[in-house]
Amino acid sequence: MQDEAKMTDSTAYAYPLLIKQLLLTPFAQAQDQEIVYRGQLRMTYATLRERIGRLANGLSQLGVRHGSTVGVMDWDSHRYLECYFAVPMMGAVLQTVNVRLSPAEIAYTINHAGAEVLLVHTDFLPVVEAIKDKLETVRAFIWIDEPGSVAGAHSIPFSAEYEAMLAANSASYAFPDFDENTRATTFYTTGTTGLPKGVYFTHRQLVLHTITLMAALASPVSGQRFHRGDVYMPLTPMFHVHAWGMPYIATVLGVKQVYPGRYQPDRLARLVRDEGVTFSHCVGTILHMLLMCEEAKATDLSKWKIVIGGGALPQGLAQAAVDRGIDVFAGYGMSETCPVLSLAQLPPGAEALGADEQLRLRCKAGLPVPLVDLRVVDESMGDLAHDGKASGEIVARAPWLTQGYLNNPEASQQLWAGGYLHTQDIASIDATGNVQITDRLKDVIKSGGEWVSSLEIENLISQYEGVSEVAVIGIKDDKWGERPVALVVLEEGAAVTEEDIKQHVLSFSTSGKISKYAVPQIVKFVDEIGKTSVGKINKKSLREQFA
Amino acid sequence: MQDEAKMTDSTAYAYPLLIKQLLLTPFAQAQDQEIVYRGQLRMTYATLRERIGRLANGLSQLGVRHGSTVGVMDWDSHRYLECYFAVPMMGAVLQTVNVRLSPAEIAYTINHAGAEVLLVHTDFLPVVEAIKDKLETVRAFIWIDEPGSVAGAHSIPFSAEYEAMLAANSASYAFPDFDENTRATTFYTTGTTGLPKGVYFTHRQLVLHTITLMAALASPVSGQRFHRGDVYMPLTPMFHVHAWGMPYIATVLGVKQVYPGRYQPDRLARLVRDEGVTFSHCVGTILHMLLMCEEAKATDLSKWKIVIGGGALPQGLAQAAVDRGIDVFAGYGMSETCPVLSLAQLPPGAEALGADEQLRLRCKAGLPVPLVDLRVVDESMGDLAHDGKASGEIVARAPWLTQGYLNNPEASQQLWAGGYLHTQDIASIDATGNVQITDRLKDVIKSGGEWVSSLEIENLISQYEGVSEVAVIGIKDDKWGERPVALVVLEEGAAVTEEDIKQHVLSFSTSGKISKYAVPQIVKFVDEIGKTSVGKINKKSLREQFA
């Protein structure tokens, strides 16, 4: 029989999962490793350790306590990395403010999260100046005075400047133990409907996401994706789902880290070359932009591994990356899921599959990572066959999913209906466990009584010579219910006609690979395709525009 | 402010860490992957899934409930793997009985653990026959009737035979959710003093050990150590610390697994060759035995990776393995630590270090794995300098250390004195975080007022041409306190004298690399060196023998 008395959690052996433990091994094993900011500033992990202590002491003096919330408005930087650790390690909550929202939305999120201290980079002084009278909870502002940036006139009552504050404080701070279910971070989703919704994650969740994702990224048969010999640079903003948690993994691995500041394609390409970057992650549009820039054309990208998430990886884009020697592969998840649920992987013996099949595998949502219970279900939560065809909504459980939306019980209950988190993504699973997203629940096109996958049509069109970007939406049709419309951005000088595109899609319909309803009713050539604040195609706005 | 109401653990999003979750991804992604027993029996992961359900239903019928303990006496097999999952997933405790203990000790451990059901392989019928009247808690026996094994006369009242029981039961079993701090496994350490002591691990601990070790094994710069393309075979018995937790990792990875039954060197070598084994783990003596066997000499071992633990990896043995093309490296831990605390790793740029330094790095206890808080301390628990010289006891915290010894509060309190688990291993840490074990607290030799490392002398002697095995112990000396004595097994036909060995060690003393007290007083050539039940050199018994 079990001796339950021995199972209590209050004795010497108790070991809550806390973010500070992620630092144990890198600080002992990688003290001299570099962290680089914009190619201009270099520091070591030993310095990072000291600066985390100095930051905690500085925030403490400004009244930050267990349970306080600290907001950050900065570009991707070593400072942000310091906040990723120092703030939650104090027992406080880090709000990574989405700086691409409108000023009114930014004010809403800061108030809703209840941030008491706000760190502001010079570039965001105008925004904060505009909203400062609306901020209800902020008691203290800290200025991040970027060398080279010029601060215009403003009336923000700063309590401290970041570097001066660090210099004035001791590096020694005894980060306490506390309950692993303490909230560590909060940020706001950029849903296209209604007000932004706050998601939040605990220490336990972030530690489990970090270690499990580290295992999943390192162990595929097709080569290690992220290991101790890599050089890391995020290309997903650090305000967005902790840059997919990758800075935490990079730190545990003790690798060289490169933070690029504000994203400018030529600078990013230069950093990849000059700092020897080998591992990044971004949305497809950033990769597309980067491949197009002049600096990238003159750079050897063949040692670069990139995870693409935040939307589908179109095969056309994947091919362009593979052509440059990039090891590109998709990941799948969302803000609510911390974010990673699955990663594309090539199976043992992938060499024998041929280039086309390999490319298709790179573009799938891929294989759920360990501990993830990912199901594709029908409307009554019944499991669909794993035949690569039956499609339904993805629902999931995992040890790192948001417990709900902050102070929004109604939306939280909907999110967790039936004990599983509802992703609103439509997908199929095949016999090898590979997940293929076919659409967002809201973006799916119902034509002629069939579901047509907008992602599948985009995939086909993206591979047509001369096509640079494409978005497919459904518009109302009296006869068919809905019909697909393709919005296409052409490469400079490409001579492609509406009929070319239609014939291209039709050829796949004729061969039986897709439904005839998938052939776009209209192909419209446009100069650009509207994106959300995190670079996703904004289909809701496109539908309104072309209604 | 934190909304503490949202942090409770009783709602839809709650996700306790349970062993059953380790099966989520392999059962979806590796259904057709093989599990092989002795090269004779082959089954798939899909069959493993069914058999785990059948086993749980069978055990249920025999009265196994949440909190029951089930003991297993078997060689390394697919059946053992089934028990690793089915028993804890029911909420019961798996006791992996150490079959190398004496019958009286085996009876003691089964009674102490309170096993209610006992699974017994034919080979262990004589042992169980001898002790069955002493077993106080066992209510039901299950016979594992190995094809080809012959059961002699016995009077054990078996309730079932393993395969017949599985065949008679349904594959469908709804494994429940429960508290992640529920005990999952128990087994008994083979300490050389007093009665065996029980250590135990919870679901949470085994899941965290599995995922973290998986990340650590996959992410070193010097090539993936364990990944989806590997073929796994344990060479550490499955009764001993869950074969270091590796069968759990192998299953999460979804790799081909090979279980060898009873260890016979020629059969093991044949399995490596015929099944394409690429990843194993064992104590040094097993590797030594394997390299010596005829079958291994005719086998290409150059794709094999082996972790050596349960004692130091002598450089002589490591060199012999490297000469055969084996990627051999040390790991460090003990029964009380689940077991892994650290793994030897080559750093980025190791190629430039030269063969000797690489070999030394392979033999170190290496780098603590993520989440492990490993310290080397003096007698008042003060941290020693990370200078590669200062040596003291290793103490540790990690999310997977035993909470104590089962029903032994006194020993448990000693184990966890000061809030850290005391390993009784003496070590130093260098500036790169590398841990180097110099001795067991009990084995250290105090000579001429200095601490002499028995492991260091063994290391030097192991590299002398013609030496097959070596053990160094301290014997009492009126003048010096203690003096080292070396017991040496020579390779067949080697012409090595006592003076050769002494001169060899003396040369390192003359060059200042070791103390002059390290030169053995006596070198004694012996036919074999006594081992404990798990293959470690039994220094306590050697000391008694040569006192």
UniProtKB/TrEMBL annotation, chains A, B:
Classification via InterPro entries: AMP-bd_C, AMP-bd_C_sf, AMP-dep_synth/lig_dom, ANL_N_sf, ATP-dep_AMP-bd_enzyme
Pfam families, A to Z: AMP-binding, AMP-binding_C
Residue intervals of the AMP-dependent synthetase/ligase domain: 29-406
Gene3D superfamilies linked to this entry: 3.30.300.30, N-terminal domain of ligase-like
AMP-binding enzyme C-terminal domain: residues covered: 456-536
Sections of the chain in a coiled coil: none
CDD domains: ttLC_FACS_AlkK_like
GO MF annotation list: ligase activity, forming carbon-sulfur bonds
Alphabetized UniProt keyword annotations: Ligase
Family: Belongs to the ATP-dependent AMP-binding enzyme family.
Entries under NCBIfam families matching the protein: PRK06187.1
Name this polypeptide is given: Fatty acid--CoA ligase
Organism: Trinickia terrae
